[in-house]
Amino acid sequence: MPAIAAAGLHHGYLFIQGFLMANLEPQPQATVNYPLPKLTLPVKLAYGAGDIGAGLTSQFLSFFLLIFLTDVVGMRPVVAGSVLAVGKVWDAVNDPLVGLFSDRINTRWGRRYPWMFLTAIPFGLSYCLIWIVPGFEKEWMSFWYYVAITSIFQLFFTTTNLPYSTLTAEMTQDYDERTSLTSFRLSSSIIGGLSILIAAGVLSAVIEDEGQRYLLLGILGGVISIVTLYLCIFGTYGYMLKKATAAGMALGDIAEEEPESFAQQLKVVVRNRPYLFVVGIYLFSWLALQITAAVIPFYGKYWMDVDGSLLALIVQGVAIAMMFVCAALSKRIGKKNLYFLGSGIWILVQVALFFLQPGQTGILFGLCALAGFGVATAYVVPWSILPDVIELDELKTGRRREGTFYAFMTLLQKIGLALGIYLVGLALEVSGFDQNLAEQSESALRAIRFFAGPVPLVLLICGMVLVYFYPLTREMHAEIMLKLAERKRLEKQEGA
Questions:
Q1: Which residues are within 8 A (CB) of 186 and not within 5 positions of it... i.e. 6 or more apart?
Q2: Distance CA 189, CA 379 (A)
Q3: Residue 186 pLDDT greater than 50, yes or no
Q4: What is the DSSP string of 302-362?
C-alpha cells in the first residue's frame, strides 16, 4: 500500500488540478511519439485497489443481507429476498445509460475517471445506509425503505464500478497482460470481501447486539470503499496520461460519434456472438456463487452448527491465493482449460456439501478450501476474455464500446446477486423456515442443503458447456489486434 500511495500522490495532485480547471472540450492531440509505458507493479496494485469496495460491498451483501433482513429486521424470507429483485427494474435502465454516457462524455481527464471521482463518496454513504434498522412497525414500510436505499446504492455502484471495469480494455491491449490485470483486480475484490468478513468475526466477539454490529460493519465498508476508489484514480491516472501521450493523443480523445439508443446498444450486444457466450458463462458462474453465498450462513448456522463467516473466510482466502496461480495457469493451459479445471473441482465440492453430515467440520473446512480455487477461476476467466470481444466489435464496426459491453456485464452482476438472494429466500419461505426457531424443520433443512449443493452444480455445468463452445481463441485475438493496428496505422498516415 505505501508503494501505491507514493506512486499515486503526484498523479493525484495532477488529476485534481485537471479536474478543477478543465472543461468538457477534447484537448488537442499530442504529436510526440514515445514508447508505450510499461504496466508496473504499483500501477497494477493501484488498479486492483479500485475493486476492493465493489468486492467488499458485494460479498457482504451476498453473504449477510438476507439473514440481516430476516433475523435482525424481522422480515419474512420471501419478502427479504425480494428487496434486491425489485430494484433490478431500475438497474435495467440505469446500467446501460451509464455505460452509454461513460463512452460518450469526453473530458480532458478521460472518459472514466470523472464518474469514479464524483460518485465514490455517494457510493460509500449509500452502502452505510443499508445497514440501518429503521424500526418501522409495518413490514411493507421496511420493505420499501430497503428497496429505495439498495436501488440508490446500486446506482452509485454502477457509476463507480462500470467506468472502472472498462479501464481494463483501455490500459492494455495485450492478451496476457489483461489476464494479469484481471487477476490483480479480482484478488483485490476478494481481499475486500475477506477484510469485511474478518472484521465481522472480530466484532461478533465484542458486540452482542447484531443491529449495532451490522451498522459498524456498514460504516467500515463505506469508508474503505471511498478511500480505495480514490487510491485507484490517483495511482493509475499518471500511467494513462503517459499511454495517451505515447499514442499521440490526449487522455480524453474519442471519436466524435452520434450517441446510440438503448435499442441500438442491445442490437450491438446481441450481434456479437462471442460476447453472448461471455454473458452466459459469467451469468451461470456468478449465479452459482451468489446462491452459495446466500445460503452458506444458513447452512453453517442451522445444519453444521458453524459460523458462516468462517466458511466464507476460508473460501475467499484460498481464492485470493489462487488468483495469481490462475493467471500463470492461463498462459500455460489456456483460459478454457483453466475454467474446466476450476469448475470441475467446484462441482465436486457442491456434491459433497449436499451429503455432508453435522459434526464433519474438518471435511467442511477442506471442501471450502477446494471451492476457493473454483471461485477464483469463475472470477478471472469471464472478466479476462471480455476485452477481447470488445476488440472484435471494434474491428467489425470501427467503434469502441467498452461502456456498453461492461454495462450489460455489470447489470448481470447485480441480477445474479439479486436472483441468488431471492431464490434462497423463496426456498426458505416455501420450505417452512422460521427465523424465530433455533432448530428448523426437516423440510427447511433439506431446502438449505439443496441450495448448497445441486442447484449451483447444475449452473456450473451450464457454464462449462458454454466455455467449451466459446469461439474466440488466443490466435484469433492476435489476428484481431494485428488488423486493428494496421487500420490505425493507415488512418494515421491518411491524417498526416
A1: 51, 55, 323, 376, 379, 380, 383
A2: 10
A3: yes
A4: III-S-HHHHHHHHHHHHHHHHHHHHHHHHHH-HHHHHHHHHHHHHHHHHHHHH--TT-HH
Does residue 133 sit in helix, strand or coil? coil
| Ranges 20-29, 227-236, 267-276, 355-364: which has the least confidence | 20-29
Amino acid identity of residue 296, one-letter, is I
- In whole angstroms, give the CA distance from residue 462 to residue 286: 12
The answer to whether position 30 is within a domain reads no
Structural domain includes residue 173: yes
User: Domain range spanning residue 237?
Assistant: 13-22+38-495
pTM (predicted TM-score): 0.71
Q: What is the CATH number of the domain that holds 232?
A: 1.20.1250.20
Contacts of 36 (CB under 8 A, 6+ apart): 243, 246, 247
Question: Residues 95-104: pLDDT tens digits?
Answer: 677 766 766 6
Reading the block at residue 251, the C-alpha cell is 487522455
Higher pLDDT, 31 or 355: 355
413 lies in some domain: yes
Q: Give the chain's radius of gyration (CA, Å).
A: 23
Q: How far is CA 51 from CA 57, 308, 398, in A?
A: 10, 24, 30
Give the count of alpha carbons within 13 A of 309, CB side only.
18
DSSP string for residues in 217-270: HHHHHHHHHHHHHHHHHHHHHHHHHHHHHHTTS-TT-----PPPPHHHHHHHHH
In a domain, 28, yes or no: no
State the sign of the Cα–Cα–Cα–Cα dihedral 26, 28, 31, 35.
negative
Q: Residue 19 carries which side chain, given as an amino acid letter? A: F
State the pLDDT at residue 291.
92
DSSP state letter for 496:
-
Residue 308 CA to residue 301 CA, distance in Å, equals 7
Indicate the number of domains in the chain: 1
pLDDT digits (tens, 9 = 90+) for 114-146: 888 999 999 999 999 999 999 888 898 999 999
Indicate the pLDDT class of residue 262, thresholds 50, 70 and 90. Answer: low
C-alpha cell at position 101: 454516457
C-alpha dihedral (247, 249, 253, 255), degrees to nearest 10: -70
Average pLDDT over residues 451-467: 94
The H-assigned helical ranges of 357-473 are 361-397, 402-430, 442-452, 454-469
Residue of 285, 286, 297, 283 whose CA lies nearest to 425: 297
